[in-house]
Amino acid sequence: MDLYARVKQINEAEYAINRLIFKQYKKALASQLTTQQAVLLDIVYAAGKITVGELALEMDISSSAVSQLIAKLEKNGYVHRSVNPDNRREVFITLGPQGLEYFDKQEQVQRAVAERLYAKLTQAELGDLERITAKLMKIAQEEFR
Fold it and tell me: Range of 44's domain?
């Protein structure tokens, strides 16, 4: 089997697993968020606190587009805006109560998936999967910079 066929098989299996997980846990994961809003929340979650300008750079969209996304998310309690006391022109974005709840639900699903699926792998298989995934991530980070 050639490289492309093998990669395609791996990707299709991963996609099928993710579809099954989503189907099983869609009520817990249900949200009214668009894909762009979810991406913005993921970036804020990873950063803890981030500026509108940094979000725009990370998402590769304009600051005004980010501001529009933030306005909708803030209205629904997903994020909170605060002015940087050291630079009044800069606005910090952090998670709001709904944003924290959104990630809490994701964590609950991740724990359930770990118990239902990954717990059925041996320690050696988990170690192999962890090493391979970390190596692939490092290669992707180097290739796509």
Answer: 31-143
